[in-house]
Q: What sequence folds into this?
């Protein structure tokens, strides 16, 4: 018989040069996410983090860059539900991290020319998931 299981609420992940820490809640009662790569080091909280429940799992998205009339860059983690056996016990996980570049122009998509209007870069992220009481 399995001990009481808790749903993980804290994730530490890395892949290539990307490091992400995500907590679905915090002492302030809002989610937090920190993102670091070779160029950026950013922290997000509350409504800056968009969460969508899908068949893939939860899609956790933040905007890394928004440069008017040039591009918007987002980063998304696809997180499954992860159950852990006890408080503060890490479980190893592997998930995809997706960086999406959306070229933008004041004139709309027609000025971008033919081809994809979104560019994807997928990184295999690995690390730990655990449950903390906040």
A:
């Amino acid at each position: 018989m399995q001990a009481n299981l808790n749903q993980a609420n804290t994730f530490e992940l890395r892949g290539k040069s990307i490091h992400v820490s995500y907590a679905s809640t915090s002492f302030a009662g809002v989610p937090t996410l920190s993102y670091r790569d070779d160029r950026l080091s950013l922290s997000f909280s509350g409504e800056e983090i968009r969460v969508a429940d899908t068949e893939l799992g939860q899609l956790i998205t933040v905007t890394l860059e928004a440069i008017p009339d040039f591009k918007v860059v987002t980063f998304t983690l696809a997180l499954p539900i992860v159950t852990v056996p006890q408080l503060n016990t890490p479980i190893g996980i592997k998930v995809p991290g997706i960086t999406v570049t959306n070229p933008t122009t004041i004139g709309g998509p027609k000025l971008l020319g033919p081809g994809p209007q979104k560019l994807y870069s997928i990184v295999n992220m690995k690390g730990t998931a655990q449950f903390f009481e906040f």
